Amino acid sequence: MSHKPTITVLTPEFYSYGALLIAGILQKHGFSVKLQKGFNQEINTDIIFLSLQSTIHLLKYQEELNDINAFKIIGGPVTLSPELIFRCLSVDLVVVGEGENTIYNILRVFEKKSILEKIETSTLQGSDFKDLEGVAFHENGKIITTSSGSPASLDKQLSLVPTDISSENIRGANVYLETHRGCPGNCGFCGVPCFFGRKVRSRPLEDILREVKHFLKKGAKKIAISGGTGSLYGSGKFKNVDEEAFIELLQGISNLTGPKNLTIPDIRVDLISDDILEAISKYSNGWVFFGIESGSDQILRHMKKGITVDQVREAVKMARKHNIKTAGSFIVAYPTEEEEDFQDTLDLADELMLDDYFISIAEPIPGTDLGDEVTDLPLEDNILFHESQKYKRHNLSLAEERALDLMMESYVFRSYPVPMTQNLLDNLIAEVKSQGDHIKSVTKLIKNPKKGQSE
Ligand code: SF4
Prior knowledge:
By secondary structure, the protein is of the alpha/beta class. The protein contains 15 helices and 15 strands. Helix 8 (243-257) packs parallel to helix 9. Bound molecules: iron/sulfur cluster.
């Protein structure tokens, strides 16, 4: 091969914004880029860049990746642990952390070796990129991770929007559009500060609006804004929300999409104000999603969530004052959660009577505090592996039992109670089993002894 390298940017399940952005940047620089969702089509480019969102993908897509004949690069949130990637997948290179600059530099090296040095690029290996920052590769049985590069500039970014974006459905939105990166929060279960850092970096409003127009022109209708936590847009310091910047952001996007098509997916209970809630009510579809996590102050402290149960109560009350619908996310079976802590969570859910609930079993993301804690916790002390006595006939674990109990409670104690039919119960059992299986696999994977070594 002696030509400008071609690349497929592949996103396995949905069009992640990160993948669209990488594809947009490479296209802007004149590279031939194909954007692909799923593994159904054959890959016939020199390089495949696969953006992976979740640790379970490392187990789920092993076969598909093995079958691909191209130089394979992995990026996305899973790169918090390059060792794990190399242990699971047969790939050439990992782009560690934010990928925009690195992937561009990789393609430049490819181009140089192919066109100037006339090297057959099918012979290239990860170690040929050792002079680049922010990559990891295998060399002589070791995993080498090069020094991390400086954070990417968020100015003038414009993603490559696929032609079928109007049919994408990511929790009700066609796209989760990036408004800022980083979160000064320190929640032990969350990969955002580990991946993007704790300093908030916001995109210029005019760039965001230009990109919203670009998405709408290509057929997208429903836009969700994403960043660590919504109201941190424009913020300089933690708990120092720039209300004006956030409100201007909502107003600007809403003018283009219409309020009912704009969603603000998540927000911290301690980063709201009456003005912010008023703007959410006026410029968005009128929902807030609070990260509540637990009804136990002891567990909130252990998670380093930085909020109290009383702050949760106050936030829900404030949102209701502005006629905003409230949804809450809860995490059960966090390490050290005792039966009384879980009972406090059930009681809080009953008390709040939210409009919607998202309930998850604690998932240990490698590179986070929770990831480390679960890695160190013997399986026999992890309630994900303890048999439930209450739901023995459904073959659930104690962690799954808690998730199921909270899910059932959340249907009965919500603003519009939903009767618990057999069908709904069956669906909930299937949901907790699927969550439990997934997290058990991830837990066993991260507890395996490390094979590689990092430099
Ligand atoms: S506030 Fe939200 S985004 Fe920030 S660390 Fe906590 S969970 Fe993650």
